[in-house]
Amino acid sequence: MASEVARLAQELDLAGVPKRDTIGRIIGDEEVPPNQHDVDTLAAALASVAGREVAAVVRQIRSMWVRAGTSSPSPRLGSPVSEFTAFALEVHRSIEVAECVARLPALPSYVSRAHDDLLAREVDAAMRGHSKMVTLVGGSSTGKTRACWEAVQRLPTRWRLWHPISPNPAEALINGMDSIGPYTVVWLNEAQRYLLTADISLSERIAAGLRELLRTPQRGPVLVLATVWPQYWADLAIQPPTGQWDFRPQSRTLLSGTDISVADAFAGADLEALHAAADSDPRLAEALDAAEAGRITQYLAGAVRLVRQYRNAPPAARAIVHVAIDACRLSQLTHIPHALLEQAAPDYLTDHEWNQTGEDWLKQALAYTSAECYGISGPLTHFRPRPGDDTAGVKPPCYRLADYLEQLGGIERADIYPPSSFWQAVASVITDTAVLQDLGEEAENAGRYHRAATIYWRAADYGDPAAPLRLAELCERLGDLAGAEELAQQAADRGDPIALMWRAEVREELGDHSGAEALYRLAADRGDPFALTRLAEIHDDAGDSAGAEALVLRAVACGNGLAFGRLAERRKRAGNFVGAEVLYRRSVQNGNIRALCWLAELREQIGDESGAEALYREAADEGDPDAMLWLVKQYEQAADSASGQTLALEAAVRGVPRVLCGLAELRDNAGDASSAETLYRQAAELDDPDAMFRLAELREREDVQPGAEAFALRAAELGDRLALSRLAGLREQNGDPIAAEALTRKAADRSDPGALHRLADLWELAGDSARALQLRQFGLDDDGSLATEWEFPLERHSAG
């Protein structure tokens, strides 16, 4: 090309004679080239090769050059990858080896593993022009963020990187979504900060926006890189069991098939490669000698020393770390206020430990927790926000908990309900309404209704529009329906459409259908997608099919992606199969893959077996677990168990272990318990919470209670909050009410929302209806004892 360009430049008497490198930059870079003459000559050469009129093309290029020089370019999000440091993108710092600090690079030598190869394929696809999303799933300090950092180093210079973090991650992403341009890496470290916020509507809008970005060729190529812990992946990506409402369909669709697992440890060939790299990096050599079971990355990130510092902490230092762990595991709080540590810590200490503390106990405790060890920050360190940083309303001084301890502490303290001083401090110190909402929900789910009420009042004082409705529900629990109605009205007046929905549902239950419809309309006018869906059902029941479908379209646009399917299901139950099929197909067109299965079920119901099979296969090709499970059942019925098992295993590898669990259940129901357990264990190895609970059921059936409880606890850790109370139900069925109550209490302390009702049911079955009624009304005290009647201060109904 360079020689052809030089020939044409001489032949046409053009001023520019660009060399090979310049030609590459003109073609490859997005910026306006520095020399117009070089561009003219290159355009002439390309026009000649293409058989176009050279003079006309050169005139067109010169006109474009003038426009480019006089117009204001739209700003691009992000910055060149080369302008970022690994630490700015939240890669963990490494331990230091004292005698080598000066001559070692900031990061240890990198050793690629299996996940790096998979990640590289997706990055290569992005460089070829295909928009991609990758989600690295692994525990804290396993190397997820470092892997992403290494991957983006290979991108050409035209690529930019955008890390949305201010004013907070979710708002930054939604605000900038429409400005993401081609050749952009969207860096979503700790993806739960974007997709698992307290505001489900916000998270779903983010997920929908990312889906639209990835599927719009004109905006690509883009590369979305996300990292997440396994428990958050379970919350985000694993579909709820059939029959349970899915509140995050956009997130699940977005993440489907994007996951790459990052192993906790080095093994096999990876470990051999690490030995070779350790010859030139003493940090790797030390990790090889000292890390347990191949957990190299955790050792390099200081996790071992961090845990040792935490385990050996003096009582006061350990207490403030526990306060921080509880605050982080129960809410989205990331910056811990000094006042919260000071006010909450006393009840974390025994009387003897508290009496031994001096007047400067907090200063000494913070000095211990913030002390660095081999260059790694301590368990709880002072955080100084930069101007403009979001700190969830926390005023300095504030502190950050090491994320490895956040993960470890979240597991170890999951059974521990925080003491009274924690909740008193929360109500006194925290001002961020999203954090207060999180903590109020945790208290309510744990059955500590008086604590929940106090925190919701606090949220209402700070302007949370949803808090009065939550107070209304608690007020209704106490039997004060008039007070509940007053609070719900306050919530509606503050702009909370859910409060209008709540009042409408109450009106429907009381038979006031016209009053209910009026309230649904008010909520719909405020953009509530579920109110729009309910109105659509009312119109459909009245025979206004066109009006119903128009309302469903509005509901879908407002975020209820399942609205078509819900109305179609009502039509199917009413025998209107033609009308149901129309809506199912509209749902498919709107991107709801599950609707293919619903449509297939409809075809089965009207006797079209071949049409149903075609739809199931289409849905299976799109990764729908119900469709894949249908195919597995067909293989099992045809005595082709090998093909069914292959399909289930492939689905599990693609991130859909539910199919493997379904096959295991089929085998178990057929009497093949051994094969079922093998399949459940294969799914459990992929951290599937349903598989873990199924193994708990098998152990319970064999009367191996410790094993059953261990599997149920693991299921709970992976996101199944109902696992312990479900196991308690099995024990109650097996005639062991004492064990059932013990498990149910443990489930309540873990904020299982159904545990308290199960406990009340157990007491009723035992003949103690009065105590059960008291439990349902007043809940539990902080120490787990039955709460006595507590006042709901009516004068505070107007709080805030």
Overview of this protein structure:
The chain has 800 residues and is mainly alpha-helical. The chain is built from 43 helices and 9 strands. Helix 42 packs antiparallel against helix 43. The longest helix is centred in the N-terminal third of the chain and has 17 residues, at 54-70. It is globular, with a radius of gyration of 30 Å.
The neighbouring-strand order within the major sheet is 1-3-4-5-2-6
Q: Provide mean pLDDT, rounded.
A: 84
Q: Classify the helix fraction into a percent range.
A: 55-70%
- Overall geometric form: globular
**How does the helix and strand content classify structurally?**
mainly alpha
> Uncertain spans, ≥5 residues at pLDDT below 50?
794-800
Based on CA atoms alone, the radius of gyration comes out at 30 Å
Key structural traits:
800 residues; mainly alpha; three-stranded antiparallel sheet; 43 helices; disordered C terminus
